[in-house]
């Protein structure tokens, strides 16, 4: 540790730390533009200048290492004059268009010009202008504002792993952009907006919509993938205008995937805002009383073994618990939450969780990916894997379709179970790599399980992890990567077939007479039996709603207080930001009201009562989150010898159209067109 004196305050910092980090440890604010905690040091904006005793001139604190006994001054006359000079240079060509800039009110340049700049400029010559660049349908560029801090260049190269941004020319003629004008091919492009310290990169869908001080801000959780990204929802009145990430180092750091960030316009399109009842083959508007009477008539006329319920991909834990309570009270055991048909063994939590944890990726030293494309299924987790790769000594093997770009190099071991067999019998050299690692990881995708031999693939993946010594009390290296924010909560609550109950496959094709779909759009509704009465409860008129005999309008994740569980089993709360449109209601309230007309008394009347019962049934939803080791190496049911030779298929083929909110979004439809994604013919 090195002792450093900053403005008379002595602090201890690790050897190798920078002067800027020492100043922050002393509680001193250092202005900066190019420096970012999660990117490499560039040292090119010079705004972070400080005075170091015995140094002949001010030094850039972001790139200057500390030394024991160093004396630093952050607010001396030399420092103030230097910063004013730097700010004057930065503003030489910067346009004075703050009143029409979307960064106005949230701009680092604005704030630091006030705090550290001069009150006048000596520059009289005309300002230069730079042509705006096209970088895709999500980011709007006004490159005349660019101060060439290169944060965007470093993010694209280091975090996103898509080095498509760079600088051309030199000196006054230098410009940032893509060398060949095209859309950025990364699922994390929206983060460029957050890290840009000026208004050069702004959100195209949000352009000229509002000012930040007009917005009401609500903390929430992104449910459009299973990462559990912490987000902030910005709304004005009844409309969501923007979604931004919040910092959580254990989950998403400060990044967010594009689909969750930009598909918010889908929250106001194709919405279900009143009940609909099918009469004589046609849907017509109905009142809530009519809807509940139709439910009561149908269910009372049906035996419990002919009633089924399916929980969807974005369903919150409270609504899943309420629907399970209703079905249990009715005597039905036909429950399922695996709309993709994935063979998931839920007899133990560690069979279906990301047990290493997202933050635990940083401690891994070898990785095997089985039937998964983390770049499309969980872009933020993929960025975490890339971050670990950049640190070095992290061999990665993948079994799945060939030609997939994960943004980091990896060994393609094969396309299907044959490679798994080779690992198990020791004939593949990558098994030696896993065994030599101290903390090996195995990630299994749902695409590897959504097939007839899925249970056998799950068992084989567990056996590979066990053979690699990845299942220990101090390290759990087996991980299942889910796709959406509602999938793990339903598994935690046991929304699965009871004894003698039917799976989703058993309920389709006429297996039940009444089928209650709780936002379940992840399968082809054409497979439902022609005589089956379908109750669709959800927030969007997606494909399953078109097959319904009765539609109950529910609330989207931005419109309710709810609990969601991410892929690692971390229960997190989302809060109501805007109210649901029209007559739509929170899903658990709809189930509770339907139970009353069915003569079923559910043991809760309020959200707090429901949550108390829910935590009683699944204590892990109310406990604090902590990493887990593996105490029991006994594997899930299944026989690795019975795996077929069919190659693994991708779980998500159309990233921008993967869920019902995204499929209703015009912005996501434009992204799908630009990136060559065919329209999703079935819910993915």
TrEMBL record:
<keyword id="KW-0560">Oxidoreductase</keyword>
<dbReference type="InterPro" id="IPR036010">
    <property type="entry name" value="2Fe-2S_ferredoxin-like_sf"/>
</dbReference>
<dbReference type="Pfam" id="PF22117">
    <property type="entry name" value="Fer4_Nqo3"/>
</dbReference>
<keyword id="KW-0001">2Fe-2S</keyword>
<dbReference type="Pfam" id="PF00384">
    <property type="entry name" value="Molybdopterin"/>
</dbReference>
<dbReference type="GO" id="GO:0046872">
    <property type="term" value="F:metal ion binding"/>
</dbReference>
<dbReference type="GO" id="GO:0051537">
    <property type="term" value="F:2 iron, 2 sulfur cluster binding"/>
</dbReference>
<keyword id="KW-0874">Quinone</keyword>
<dbReference type="Pfam" id="PF13510">
    <property type="entry name" value="Fer2_4"/>
</dbReference>
<feature type="domain" description="4Fe-4S His(Cys)3-ligated-type">
    <location>
        <begin position="78"/>
        <end position="117"/>
    </location>
</feature>
<dbReference type="InterPro" id="IPR010228">
    <property type="entry name" value="NADH_UbQ_OxRdtase_Gsu"/>
</dbReference>
<dbReference type="InterPro" id="IPR015405">
    <property type="entry name" value="NDUFS1-like_C"/>
</dbReference>
<keyword id="KW-0408">Iron</keyword>
<protein>
    <recommendedName>
        <fullName>NADH-quinone oxidoreductase</fullName>
        <ecNumber>7.1.1.-</ecNumber>
    </recommendedName>
</protein>
<keyword id="KW-0520">NAD</keyword>
<feature type="domain" description="2Fe-2S ferredoxin-type">
    <location>
        <begin position="1"/>
        <end position="78"/>
    </location>
</feature>
<dbReference type="GO" id="GO:0042773">
    <property type="term" value="P:ATP synthesis coupled electron transport"/>
</dbReference>
<keyword id="KW-0004">4Fe-4S</keyword>
<dbReference type="GO" id="GO:0008137">
    <property type="term" value="F:NADH dehydrogenase (ubiquinone) activity"/>
</dbReference>
<dbReference type="InterPro" id="IPR001041">
    <property type="entry name" value="2Fe-2S_ferredoxin-type"/>
</dbReference>
<dbReference type="InterPro" id="IPR006656">
    <property type="entry name" value="Mopterin_OxRdtase"/>
</dbReference>
<dbReference type="InterPro" id="IPR006963">
    <property type="entry name" value="Mopterin_OxRdtase_4Fe-4S_dom"/>
</dbReference>
<dbReference type="GO" id="GO:0016020">
    <property type="term" value="C:membrane"/>
</dbReference>
<comment type="similarity">
    <text>Belongs to the complex I 75 kDa subunit family.</text>
</comment>
<dbReference type="Pfam" id="PF09326">
    <property type="entry name" value="NADH_dhqG_C"/>
</dbReference>
<dbReference type="InterPro" id="IPR019574">
    <property type="entry name" value="NADH_UbQ_OxRdtase_Gsu_4Fe4S-bd"/>
</dbReference>
<dbReference type="GO" id="GO:0048038">
    <property type="term" value="F:quinone binding"/>
</dbReference>
<dbReference type="GO" id="GO:0051539">
    <property type="term" value="F:4 iron, 4 sulfur cluster binding"/>
</dbReference>
<feature type="domain" description="4Fe-4S Mo/W bis-MGD-type">
    <location>
        <begin position="215"/>
        <end position="271"/>
    </location>
</feature>
<keyword id="KW-1278">Translocase</keyword>
<dbReference type="InterPro" id="IPR050123">
    <property type="entry name" value="Prok_molybdopt-oxidoreductase"/>
</dbReference>
<keyword id="KW-0411">Iron-sulfur</keyword>
<keyword id="KW-0479">Metal-binding</keyword>
<dbReference type="GO" id="GO:0016651">
    <property type="term" value="F:oxidoreductase activity, acting on NAD(P)H"/>
</dbReference>
<comment type="function">
    <text>NDH-1 shuttles electrons from NADH, via FMN and iron-sulfur (Fe-S) centers, to quinones in the respiratory chain. Couples the redox reaction to proton translocation (for every two electrons transferred, four hydrogen ions are translocated across the cytoplasmic membrane), and thus conserves the redox energy in a proton gradient.</text>
</comment>
<dbReference type="Pfam" id="PF10588">
    <property type="entry name" value="NADH-G_4Fe-4S_3"/>
</dbReference>
<dbReference type="InterPro" id="IPR000283">
    <property type="entry name" value="NADH_UbQ_OxRdtase_75kDa_su_CS"/>
</dbReference>
<dbReference type="InterPro" id="IPR054351">
    <property type="entry name" value="NADH_UbQ_OxRdtase_ferredoxin"/>
</dbReference>
<dbReference type="Pfam" id="PF22151">
    <property type="entry name" value="Fer4_NDSU1"/>
</dbReference>
């Amino acid at each position: 540790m090195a002792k450093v004196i900053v403005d008379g305050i002595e602090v201890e910092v690790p050897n190798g730390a920078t002067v800027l980090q020492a100043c922050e440890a002393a509680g001193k604010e250092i202005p900066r533009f190019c420096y970012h905690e999660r990117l490499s040091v560039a040292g090119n904006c010079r705004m972070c200048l400080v005075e170091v005793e015995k140094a002949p001139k001010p030094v850039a604190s972001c790139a200057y290492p500390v030394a024991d006994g160093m004396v630093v001054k952050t607010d001396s006359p030399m420092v103030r004059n230097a910063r004013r000079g730097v700010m004057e240079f930065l503003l030489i060509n910067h346009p004075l268009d703050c009143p029409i800039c979307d960064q106005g009110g949230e701009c680092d340049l604005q704030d630091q010009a006030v705090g550290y700049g001069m009150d006048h400029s000596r520059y009289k010559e005309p300002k230069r202008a730079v042509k705006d660049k096209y970088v895709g349908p999500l980011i709007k560029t006004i490159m005349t504002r660019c101060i060439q801090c290169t944060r965007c260049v470093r993010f694209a190269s280091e975090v996103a792993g898509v080095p498509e941004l760079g600088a051309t020319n030199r000196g006054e003629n230098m410009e940032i952009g893509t060398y060949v004008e095209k859309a950025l091919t990364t699922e994390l492009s929206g983060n460029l907006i957050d890290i840009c310290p000026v208004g050069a990169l702004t959100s195209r869908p949000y352009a000229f919509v509002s000012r930040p001080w007009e917005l009401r801000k609500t903390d929430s959780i992104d449910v459009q993938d299973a990462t559990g990204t912490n987000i902030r929802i910005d709304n004005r009145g009844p409309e969501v205008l923007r979604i931004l990430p919040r910092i959580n180092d254990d989950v998403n750091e400060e990044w967010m995937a594009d689909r969750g960030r930009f598909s918010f316009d889908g929250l106001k399109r194709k919405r279900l805002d009143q009940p609909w009842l099918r009469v004589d083959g046609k849907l017509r508007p109905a009142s809530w009383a009519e809807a509940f009477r139709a439910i009561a008539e149908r269910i009372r006329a049906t035996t419990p073994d002919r009633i089924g319920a399916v929980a969807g991909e974005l369903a919150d834990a409270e609504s899943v618990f309420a629907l399970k309570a209703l079905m249990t009270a009715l005597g039905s055991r036909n429950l399922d939450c695996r709309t993709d048909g994935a063979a998931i063994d839920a007899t133990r939590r560690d069979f279906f969780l990301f047990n290493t944890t997202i933050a635990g990726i940083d401690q891994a030293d070898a990785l095997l990916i089985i039937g998964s494309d983390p770049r499309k299924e969980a872009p933020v987790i993929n960025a975490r894997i890339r971050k670990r790769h950049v640190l070095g000594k992290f061999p990665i093997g993948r079994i799945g379709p060939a030609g997939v770009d994960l943004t980091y190099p990896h060994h393609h071991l094969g396309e299907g179970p044959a490679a798994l067999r080779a690992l198990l019998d020791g004939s593949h050299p990558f098994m030696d790599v896993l065994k030599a690692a101290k903390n090996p990881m195995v990630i299994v995708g749902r695409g590897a399980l959504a097939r007839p031999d899925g249970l056998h693939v799950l068992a084989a993946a567990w056996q590979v992890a066990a053979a690699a010594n990845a299942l220990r009390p101090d390290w759990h290296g087996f991980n299942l990567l889910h796709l959406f924010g509602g999938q793990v909560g339903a598994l935690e609550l046991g929304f699965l077939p009871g004894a003698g109950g039917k799976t989703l496959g058993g309920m389709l094709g006429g297996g039940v007479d009444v089928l209650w779909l709780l936002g379940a759009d992840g399968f082809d509704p054409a497979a439902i039996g022609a005589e089956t009465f379908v109750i669709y409860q959800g927030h969007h008129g997606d494909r399953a709603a078109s097959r319904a005999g009765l539609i109950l309008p529910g609330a989207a994740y931005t419109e309710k207080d709810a609990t969601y569980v991410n892929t690692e089993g971390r229960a997190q709360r989302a809060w109501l930001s805007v109210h649901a449109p029209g007559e739509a209601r929170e899903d658990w309230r709809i189930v509770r009201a339907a139970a009353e007309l069915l003569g079923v008394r559910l043991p809760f009347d309020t959200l707090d009562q429901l949550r108390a019962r829910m935590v009683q049934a699944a204590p892990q939803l109310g406990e604090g989150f902590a990493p887990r080791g593996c105490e029991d190496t006994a594997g899930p049911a299944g026989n690795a010898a019975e795996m077929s030779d069919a190659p693994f298929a991708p779980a998500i083929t159309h990233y921008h159209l993967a869920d019902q909110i995204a499929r209703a979004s015009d912005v996501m439809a434009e992204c799908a067109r630009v990136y060559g994604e065919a329209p999703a013919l079935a819910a993915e």
